[in-house]
Amino acid sequence: MDIQRGRNVRRHRILKRAVVAVLALGALCATGFAVMRLQPAVPTVERASIYPGSVKRGPMLREVRGPGKLVAEEVLWVPAAADGRVVKINVYPGSMVQPDTILMELDNPELRQQTLDAEFALRAAEASYTDLSVQLKTQLFDRKSAAAQVSSDYKDAAIRADRDLKLEKEGLISKLDAAISDNKADQLKIRDDLEDQRLRIIDESARAQLAVQQVRIEQARTLYELKRGQLDQLKVRAGAGGVIAQLGASVPSGAAVAVTYLEVGQKVTAGTILAKIAQPQKLKAELKINETEARNVLTGQPASIDTRNGIIQGKVSRIDPTAVNGNVTIDVKLISELPNGARPDLSVDGKIELERLEDVVYMGRPTNGQPNSTIGIFRIAPDGQYASRVQVKVGRASVNTIEVLGGLIPGDQVILSDMTAQDGHDRIRLN
What we know:
alpha+beta; CATH 2.40.50.100; 3 domains; 6-stranded antiparallel beta barrel; 4-stranded antiparallel β-sheet; 36% helix; rod-shaped
């Protein structure tokens, strides 16, 4: 039979449920508060993906680095002496040439015709000189003949006048006849003197006329030799020994450089650069150094040039006063022996030694390591399991190292590789 429960049983059941609900709510609130107090999860970074470095104390070598190329110290540009069309190319870049090596052959029919015209003009001038010389000699001979006749008549008249003067003194002829003979002799003497003067004038005139014609010959010969030389120079010779660096001209076009290559059939004008000849044994390096780093470079500073086949030692010989596209061109004179394969226009990397710092704290240069700034960098904990971000003040920088002024001490291990992916975290775990 059913037994009726009392009111106390029902009250205890309700009270029990209320206690359980309060305890559950309290546990839930405590759990929420604990979750709110939790720190963000520490990201994990693979140890193999980082590049660690150590903070050290000691001497630090300051250097600047930049790309560049080897260029010849002595370069000969071969221009076209006259307009022409390329009909044959005998050598190409990389070929060794001697001074008399024919690089290419040009053709210019107009120049050939002008050369023939100049040759004919020279021959005509020489013939005119010969003809004029004959005519002047003929005139001179005629005048000398006339002068000789006058001189002979004068001598005869002088003898006759002297004879008549003696006869007149002896009374054999009249005084009048003697005076007539003497007067005739005086007249012939004047004519004889005039003829002598005329001969000298004719001789001077002949020399002057021949000199004028000689000048015309020289003018014609000079023009012919010029045209002949231009015609000969259509066979373009090297003019110096060396290696052909390029055929054609490098023409600046804005910030770029356009190289015009020569081809058979191409027309060129006088003065066009046909070839560049370099001396492969005399090379220098042209480095492009960032303008902010180039301000510390001085002439005479030591440098090293990496040709990928050996290191060449050198010294800074020239610093370009202007910057182009943020870079300054610096010439380095090479002082050590060139390695095999060194040639003009070979791409190289160069380092210039600025100074040696003694007893400084330094580390490897991180990716964000700008000189004289404050940077954030991860310092690895002594156990090697975690790394924390610290603010580091850095000073003077080199190619691979940078001076530490504060925030780190010698012996600290840091991460030098790019950690921009962890910018939102101040602590990471290394796996």
